[in-house]
Amino acid sequence: MKKKILAVLLGIVLCWGIFVAAEGFRLIGSTDPGKNPVLDMGSTQIQDELAQYSSLGFSQTYHLSDDDSFVYGEFRVLGIRISRWES
User: Fold this and answer.
1) CA 68, CA 40: separation in Å to the nearest integer?
2) Residue 18 φ/ψ region, left for φ over 0, alpha for ψ in the -120 to 50 degree band, beta for the rest
3) What is the layout of strands, in order, in the sheet containing 80-86?
4) Closest CA to 49 of 32, 67, 34, 31
5) What's the angle, vertex CA 11, arms to CA 8 and CA 12, rounded to 5?
6) Which tops the pLDDT comparison, 48 or 30?
7) 3-state helix vs strand vs coil in the chain, percent to 5
8) What confidence score (pLDDT) does residue 23 get?
9) How far is 29 from 27, CA to CA, in rounded Å?
10) Beta-strand pair 42-46/80-86
11) Would you say residue 44 has pLDDT above 90?
């Protein structure tokens, strides 16, 4: 019974890891503040400052200038910054 539970948990973690990796490849480097994760669990939009999207264990943040142009972006997994890019 314990092996089945461990196998199920390992499968869930593996699927989540594949999902986060696929989203990372899709979102990292994007300069379009409207590009959000497939499963958007919540977003924060602050005009002329920030566009932040949250999903299952990761987030995508776009920092904007006063005229809504892209300045830099961040991709975080479980609160740890994985990538940061600038225009």
Assistant:
1) 21
2) alpha
3) 42-46, 50-54, 58-64, 70-77, 80-86
4) 67
5) 90
6) 30
7) 30, 35, 35
8) 93
9) 6
10) unpaired
11) no
Token pair listed for 60: 């995508």
Contact 84, 78 (CB under 8 A): no
Both tokens of 70, joined, read 């892209």
What pTM, to 2 d.p., does this model score?
Answer: 0.84
Type of residue at 57? G
The residues, any chain, with a CB within 8 Å of residue 24's CB and separated by 6 or more, are: 58, 75, 77, 82, 83
> Measured in Å, how far apart are the chain's first and last C-alpha atoms?
52
**Separation in Å, CA 19 to CA 35, 38, 57:** 16, 10, 10
